Structures are given as structure tokens and as C-alpha cells.
Amino acid sequence: MSESDEDFSGDADEIRRQMDEALSGGAGPGFARFALACLGGVPFAGGAFGGVAGAWSEREQSRLNKLFAAWLKLQEAELKEIGITLVEVMARLDGDDPVVQERIESAEYLSLVRKCFRDWSAAESEEKRVYVRNLLANAAACRITSDDVIRLFIKWINDYSEAHFAVIKDVYGNSGSSRGETWRRIHGADVREDSAEADLFKLLYRDLSTGGIMRQHRPTDGQGNFLKQSTRGQRRNASRHLKSAFDDDKPYELTELGKQFVHYTMNEIVPKIAEPMPDEVPNRPR
User: Fold this and answer.
1) pLDDT tens, position by position, 10-57
2) CA–CA dist 16, 27 (Å, integer)
């Protein structure tokens, strides 16, 4: 039986093994083997990249297309979302730029792509899918930061919810805001301190603070060193009430990592941050 006539009706593990084996070799460009083979299994995208797919041999293309067609039957919804995302990533890249071409064919970049799609959390919402798309496009178009930081950003997209992202975007666009100010901009109406909404809001801030995305504002000196804040002369709070989930006393800001996360996931292809940038309002997912 010829390679093009192989039977790909086996279980998911066997198809995955054969996919990994097929994508690890061959004469076509590395990114074409990965991305265009995915698209070859997605009916609505198959014809859009016929010219680029000519880089493969006819035999190699036939086998890869059959592999992805088999995988599509097992994971149709997820693979459709992946196909859409890959189309949109490639549409944002300059395929004639040799630097971009080298980057998207590199083992390091393909490792990032696989990490994004291994546990397809972006299927949870269109918002997450757009963040993954923007991050992959930015990671290919310029060396925005180290690949270790990109992996961290991928993890954040996977770990955090749309409620977390709403707080992140608000604090990014309104640095120095208190929790109460952020709550009023996002939700408007006041709620009780002992409500589930208040508990959730406190949890969001705790997650983002311990996760290294956000912190209470800290003054720095000219060299960027954080300054100790003196408590001398401050009056002790005599209130019988605990600190409110919506207090207006402490200003919050994103960490530098948090700012980079917003810059590279919530915006289209952007230049690398070379120095502290003025605040910008993230684009809405499109």
C-alpha cells in the first residue's frame, strides 16, 4: 500500500503519533508543514493557500491532508478554531520577510504554537482566541521578549478568565486606580460587602497580585528601585469594619510583565517595548 493510500481511521493517539511523525520531516518549509497542513484539513480554508502549499511534494501533501482530515473528524470544533486562528496569524505576517520566515520555521516558535494548541483554552471564548492569535503574530513578527516570557503569557491566557481580563484592561488604561474605581467602571452598581460579587472581586485582585500581573502602586527612585514607605504620622483606622472589597485608599498598577502581556495580547502587531510606553487603551477583540 502506498503512503498516500494509508488508512487513518485509527484512534486519536495513533493519529496524533502519525501526525507528529509526518510533521517532523519532509522537504516543505517548517511553518508550512505545521500551519498549512492544519489548514488542509479545514474545508473552509483549504483553497486559500494553494499557492503556498506548492512547496510540498504532491505525495507529502496528500498524506498530511489525509492525516488532518482524520484528526478533524475526532476534534472538529477545536480544529476549526485552530484553523481560523492560524489563518489570521499568517494574514498578519509578511511572508516575504526572511527574518519572519526564519522565525516561523524555527523549532522555538513551533514549540510556542504547539503549547498554545496543546490545551486549547482559547475555545472557551472568542476573547481568549484573539489573545492567542495576537500573541502568536507578535511573537513571529518581532522578538518581542524571550520565549520564556511568551510561554508565561500563554499560561496566563489559559489560567485567567474574562473577569480577570476585564480588571487587567481597566487597570492598564487607568493606572493608579483604586479597587472601588475599577469596580464602578466595570460594573457600576454597588453591592454588599458580604455578597458573592464582592468575594469574587477580591479573589480577582488576589489572583492577579500573586500571579505577578498587578500590584499596589510603589514609588521608585531614578534608578527604578522601590522605595520603602514610611508609616510615621499615619493615623490608625479606628473603624470597626474590615477593609472593603471596593476600597478607594490604595492605588493599583500593572507590573512591567503585566503591561507587556496587555501590549502583546490585546493589540494587533505592535513594536517591541524598548522603554516605558504611555498608557494606551487595548483594542477590543475583533
Assistant:
1) 555 666 666 556 545 543 344 444 454 444 434 434 443 444 444 445
2) 20
Cell numbers given for 169: 484592561
Concatenated DSSP letters of 118-156 = HT-GGGG-HHHHHHHHHHHHHHHHS--S-HHHHHHHHHH
Asked if residues 236 and 103 have their Cβ atoms less than 8 Å apart, the reply is no
Residue 218: pLDDT band (50, 70, 90) is: low
Are the CB atoms for 255 and 214 separated by under 8 Å?
Answer: yes
Strands (E), 92-217: 214-216
Amino acid at 30: G
Contact 213, 258 (CB under 8 A): yes
Instruction: Give yes or no for a contact between 37 and 65, defined as CB atoms under 8 angstroms apart.
Output: yes
C-alpha cell at 231: 508609616
Side chain identity at 132, as an amino acid letter?
A: V
> Crossing angle for the helix pair 196-210 and 179-186, nearest 10 degrees?
120
The structural domains of the chain, ordered by start, are: 3-159 (no CATH), 162-226+242-264 (1.10.10.10)
Whether this model's pTM surpasses 0.85: no
pLDDT for 63 beyond 80 = no
Tens of pLDDT along 132-156? 999 999 998 877 678 899 999 999 9
The β-bridge relationship of strands 214-216 and 252-254 is antiparallel
What is the DSSP-derived secondary structure letter of residue 34? I
